[in-house]
From TrEMBL:
<dbReference type="GO" id="GO:0016020">
    <property type="term" value="C:membrane"/>
</dbReference>
<dbReference type="InterPro" id="IPR016975">
    <property type="entry name" value="Cell_wall_LiaF"/>
</dbReference>
<feature type="transmembrane region" description="Helical">
    <location>
        <begin position="12"/>
        <end position="45"/>
    </location>
</feature>
<dbReference type="Pfam" id="PF24661">
    <property type="entry name" value="DUF7649"/>
</dbReference>
<dbReference type="InterPro" id="IPR047793">
    <property type="entry name" value="LiaF_C"/>
</dbReference>
<feature type="domain" description="Cell wall-active antibiotics response LiaF-like C-terminal">
    <location>
        <begin position="126"/>
        <end position="237"/>
    </location>
</feature>
<keyword id="KW-1133">Transmembrane helix</keyword>
<dbReference type="InterPro" id="IPR024425">
    <property type="entry name" value="LiaF-like_C"/>
</dbReference>
<dbReference type="Pfam" id="PF09922">
    <property type="entry name" value="LiaF-like_C"/>
</dbReference>
<keyword id="KW-0812">Transmembrane</keyword>
<keyword id="KW-0472">Membrane</keyword>
<dbReference type="InterPro" id="IPR056066">
    <property type="entry name" value="DUF7649"/>
</dbReference>
<feature type="domain" description="DUF7649">
    <location>
        <begin position="19"/>
        <end position="88"/>
    </location>
</feature>
<feature type="transmembrane region" description="Helical">
    <location>
        <begin position="57"/>
        <end position="90"/>
    </location>
</feature>
<protein>
    <submittedName>
        <fullName>Uncharacterized protein</fullName>
    </submittedName>
</protein>
Length: 240
């Protein structure tokens, strides 16, 4: 037999958990009665949605529906399993780094772009490996859930003016390699971790700090603004 894929395993687990929650609600009248009343109030509130009283009925019904579901043992088991799964997943990807080696071409001369999908996309888990890929420069705005991330801007043909790099993550380390001739501004926020900007290093605890290089005061033609948010992890910015 073929092994279930990761998405199939998650789907089956969610189906089993939903079935268990439904059975537990039906077999426990102390949970089922508030749930039933809550569903009725939600329906009644939707029929009177244009009135203030309808909104009140809807809010009360939603609370009476959510509380019994959160009180079931299967729902608590689902939360515990999700936390354990996240920790296992993080332990697997922690040892592997996401590496982005970026090489760009000069921006095009199109007068108008209505919609554009960025080359670099969000990634909750897994690894990036983009090496020697040529694409037009766009400001980077990505979210990374678990794992380490490396972005190499050494081969990048940055346009004159400001270039923005925004990275949001949950757990993991971030490393940015920036060109030696570009002015740098770093706006970093973290719950816990280390921050190293060139030769400066410090420990952070629920902090938000801003660093900028001296080139910003000298009218540098190329400037990189780095904005990073991470819950637990380190940030390192180095010149190459």
């Amino acid at each position: 037999m073929k092994k279930f894929s990761q998405k199939s395993q998650i789907g089956w687990f969610m189906l089993i958990a939903a079935t268990g929650i439904a059975l537990e609600l039906f077999l426990n009248w102390r949970l089922f009665v508030p749930l039933l009343i809550g569903c009725f109030l939600i329906y009644y509130g939707l029929t009177k949605a244009r009135r203030e009283s309808g909104k009140v009925y809807f809010i009360i019904g939603a609370l009476l529906t959510i509380i019994p579901i959160m009180s079931t043992g299967f729902f608590k088991l689902l939360i515990i399993a999700a936390v354990i799964y996240g920790l296992i997943l993080y332990s697997k990807v922690k040892k592997q780094e996401q590496k982005l080696v970026i090489e760009t071409v000069p921006p095009g001369t199109k007068a108008k772009v209505n919609r554009k999908i960025p080359y670099i996309k969000n990634r909750l888990t897994g690894n990036y490996k983009v090496v020697n890929q040529i694409f037009e420069w766009d400001d980077i705005n990505i979210q990374c859930g678990f794992g380490n991330t490396i972005i190499d801007l050494g081969m990048t043909m940055l346009p004159p003016g400001d270039s923005v790099v925004v990275i949001r993550g949950f757990i993991g380390n971030i490393r940015l390699n920036v060109p030696f001739d570009a002015a740098i501004t770093v706006n970093h926020s973290a719950l816990s971790g280390k921050l190293k900007v060139f030769n400066h290093e410090e420990d952070l605890l629920n902090s938000n700090v801003i660093y900028y290089t001296d080139e910003n005061n000298e009218g540098s033609t190329r400037r990189i603004k780095i904005i990073t948010n991470i819950a637990f992890g380190d940030l390192e910015v180095r010149r190459i």
